[in-house]
Amino acid sequence: MSLADLLAWIAALWFISAGIRWRRDVVQQRRNRARELGHKGVGELPPFQAPTRRLVLTAVWIGGVYFTQPSPIAWVLAGFPPISWAALEAAARWSLKRGHYAASLRLLGVLLFVAPDSARLVLRRGEILFAAGRLAEADIALRKALAQAHRQGHQVRALECLARVLTVKGRYEDAEQAVATALKVMPRRSGLHAARAETLLWQAARPEEALTLVNRAIDYESKTRHQAGPNFFATNWAAQAWALALLGRRDAMEEAVRRALQATDESERPQLAGVHYRLGRAHRAAGEEMAAAKSFETARSADPAGLYGRLAAG
Length: 314
Prior knowledge:
single chain, mainly alpha, Serine Threonine Protein Phosphatase 5, Tetratricopeptide repeat, 0% strand
């Protein structure tokens, strides 16, 4: 090794150590902000997990690339992690769309082995667990994501999904508190208003307010079209139909049902089941038991292993 190489290696080590020290300060700030938000919204959070493993594996990767250059192995080592990471994430998303929850969680588990401290990945795991109907595990994962997160977007997404988990578990007051906390951070996030509306719909309480919240969520998403994803409208037109049925507005309910069915992407099993489950609740609230049974059966057959398929099965 030449003197220039030695100096370059010393400089690299110095930058890595400086990065670790900077990361430590960021981690402490992250922990303080997340815990403040968490205590306001959902109570006690799990312990924070430091990014030790990710830093060590990154250092090993950089060292491997450095010591194997200029051979072709260096190019392989340099390109393999980012390419395989993107491929695993894409495969996990595809598995989720098809309702293969175990496969999606296994693929995500590989990424979490490398970066167990990643708030984004832990949040994604919580969302998959919720879609699979594993509510207790989803609750734990989402609280962990909230403890790890330093970005407001991740914190708000975790609170939004946690509110939905708490709603299905029947903890309505806790769900409303989680949404209220998140709304203080992002008052125009459409998914938060939709989650709050569903909390009311599950209780069959204050349907007029629930309808206002759903309409507000649809209006906000119509203006942004990026906060909640492309399947947002079908789900919330179904929720709108549910609220209208509780209010006894049959004609408006039928129009909302038509819109929901027209916007549904049948290739995404969890979303398809969720839309038909909500439509089933709408038909039942309107006294249309045959139509409700048909919607519940569609939800059950679309995603028998998922949350809404199980709820539809009774």
